[in-house]
User: Which sequence fits this backbone?
């Protein structure tokens, strides 16, 4: 069972992002404040949850959370400021949008830029430890998947309905064949270096 909180005194928000390792599309982040006694048996790190269950969880989280917010930073800005800064910026934007400001922030991962003077803790694999981070991971993932699904209708060759912009074989083959799109991250290595030398 996931832990309800990291400390008991302060109002805590969990934060996580989705889409950091993608070749295309924005990075999404979510911030969630859950009630202290929140229990949801299926809740886990979004990567460990089946897509259909993620959708069910999203509905419950949105209904039961004290408050939640989702934000994104697009590929153009990712190329400008780098993906790590873009991930932190998306988290800050999500935190800013919360109806109630947290007094303590739990972040999935090992690094974070301080959000004003609000104390935070970085928790490696926190989305499998704390309910609020797991809830944030579910929201970030489902919102991003939905966005990539919409983009897929305009750019069907890349298989974004399935790979969501991650570097799969199908995605890379489509880049080879059709070139990149306005949604690709130009600073990412879209194609691996050529392995064979032309002799």
Assistant:
């Amino acid at each position: 069972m996931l832990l309800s909180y990291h400390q008991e005194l302060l109002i805590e928000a969990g934060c996580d992002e989705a889409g950091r390792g993608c070749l295309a599309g924005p990075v999404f982040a979510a911030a969630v404040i859950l009630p202290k006694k929140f229990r949801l048996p299926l809740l886990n790190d979004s990567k460990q949850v089946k897509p259909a269950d993620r959708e069910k969880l999203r509905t419950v989280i949105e209904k039961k959370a004290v408050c939640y917010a989702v934000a994104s930073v697009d590929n153009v800005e990712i190329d400008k400021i780098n993906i790590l800064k873009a991930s932190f910026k998306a988290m800050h934007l999500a935190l800013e949008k919360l109806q109630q400001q947290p007094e303590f922030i739990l972040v999935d991962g090992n690094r974070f830029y301080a959000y004003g003077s609000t104390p935070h803790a970085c928790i490696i694999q926190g989305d499998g430890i704390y309910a609020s981070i797991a809830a944030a991971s579910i929201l970030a993932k489902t919102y991003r998947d939905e966005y990539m699904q919409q983009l897929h209708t305009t750019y069907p060759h890349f298989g974004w309905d399935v790979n969501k912009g991650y570097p799969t074989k199908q995605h890379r083959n489509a880049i080879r064949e059709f070139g990149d799109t306005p949604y690709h991250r130009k600073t990412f290595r879209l194609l691996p270096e050529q392995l064979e030398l032309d002799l």
